[in-house]
Amino acid sequence: xxxxEPLIEARRLVKRFGDFVAVDGIDVAVRAGEVFGFLGxxxxxxxxxxxxxxxxxxPSGGSLRILxxxxxxxxxxxxxRLGVCPQRDSLDDDLTVIENLTVYARYFGLPRKIVRQRAAxxxxxxxxxxxxxxxxxxxxxxxxRRLTIARALVNEPDIVLLDxxxxxxxxxxxxxxxxxxxxxxxxxxTQVITTHYMDEAEQLCDRLVVMDHGRxxxxxAPRDLIERFSTREVVELRFGDSPLESVIAKLDGVxxxxxxxxxxxxxYAEDGDTAAAEVxxxxxxxxxxxxxxxxxxxxxxxxTGRTLVD
Amino acid sequence: xxxxxxxxxxxxLVSYRRTWRGTIFxxxxxxxxxxxxxxxxxxxxxxxxxxxxxxxxxxxxxxVLASTGLQIGIFEGSFAVYSAFHWxxxxxxxxxxxxxxxxxxxxxxxxxxxxxxLSATGFVLVMTAxxxxxxxxxxxxxxxxxxxxxxxxxxxxxYSAVISTEGLFAVLFRFVMVxxxxxxxxxxxxxxxxxxxxxxxxxxxxxxxxxLCRAATLATSTAWGVPVHAGYLLLxxxxxxxxxxxxxxxxLTD
Lengths: 310, 254
Fold this sequence. Notes:
The structure holds two protein chains of two kinds.
Chain A: E1 8-17, E2 20-30, E3 35-39, H1 46-53, E4 61-66, H2 75-79, E5 82-85, H3 97-107, H4 112-125, H5 141-152, E6 159-163, H6 171-186, E7 190-195, H7 198-204, E8 207-212, E9 215-220, H8 222-229, E10 233-238, H9 244-250, E11 257-260, E12 265-269, H10 272-281, E13 288-293, H11 296-304
Parallel strand pairs in A: 3-7, 3-8, 5-6, 6-7
Antiparallel strand pairs in A: 1-2, 1-4, 8-9, 10-12, 10-13, 11-12
Helix pairs in contact in A: 3-4, 5-6, 8-11
Chain B: H1 3-16, H2 20-49, H3 56-77, H4 79-86, H5 90-95, H6 101-129, H7 141-162, H8 169-183, H9 195-203, H10 205-218, H11 226-251
């Protein structure tokens, strides 16, 4: 592999399951040291893409190179250099925290002495040292996820794949996971993350692709995407039980663009306060008015006409 | 065994550290109970009527040994494998490491065979204590019991990998394991059965294992000769492994 070549390079990558096309010709290049994200709703094809990159799901079409190698021919060699944090936990509940790490490290053929030393360091890193000798079963969801992340790092991987790393965690547990992943990024570890949380993508990713129905609908840094596809600010208007169709007609011309969701109307504007004042001037009486900055959620809504999390 | 396969085996050995005490206990207690109830007690009535050349205890003991190989193999290949796919998901954890589906299958199968060997060893020791081993060739009954396990376990692994609900294990236990244990010559000679049932017994790997075990512990000859019986067990083992490997590759690749 030559210097500067992407660690992961997909061209017109396709994954089919029978007639269903899960990934429909995506182009992706992930460079060393970057945190790259696949953002999209459930069923967008993120996990299928991730499983192809993880060399456990052969591509149905297009080309894919990982670390300069072919995932079909060199699967074990590539997987030896990947760290995978799968969407569903696969920890052994009956083993202790540290046994889960050491036994997994042995799959990579690491000698016992190195395994012991690394396991101790990693438990320190994910703040689980005190639970080292406890069984996994009673641990909280956040602790289990951190242990899975530690496990993914046990072979000092060149690329870490994180499939929905914080799905199902409470806010506090999520922040702890994010903080650890950020530390990892600071150490220069390349990460690929799938998520349907826009805040997660914004916090963690240097660059991301927005996926919908197996296709990439936009690509760029989170801030760039927001600038390109949304306004600086958004006003969220709620009108209680009043039908929104009648309201939206009266909002014509306010802000640059309007978006009607089942429970609220979004007014896209460079200056949210000015737009909110205009709403009031038109004698509309919303039950709540929220001015906020645009997020990736708005980008997604604009690109697909749907929200990310239903 | 390749190194990656050995590493997969290591996982199951580490897990076994939590449960080995119970299995050692049952490896000795189960044969004692069985040989007391069936061999000694029921045996008293049967021996009183004559008809067998040896005591009933010594007649069934090698058969039950072979049947233990069958049952431990089926046990280790059923819920444990289903769990590894669906509950503990340990196969999926291994799958994202450099281990291949064949390594995973090989490691888990090796563990199952170790469990069979352990239980069979317990059984042979108990048989020795009961005086049911009439010859030094009795030692060979041990590898035969493992061979019986090896002949069915890979197929049970394949079965556990493809079923979509654990309820289907009842089918395996009721319609395969129990009939085989009862009618494959463990408790009475298969000659006592009508021809169609006899054919089924001949087809079952257990009958061949029973023939070999009995010949080993009683120093007698087998029905069809050692190479035929041993070859039949080997055939099932190899064919079963190839089928299980296909299934594992398919199930662990999407």
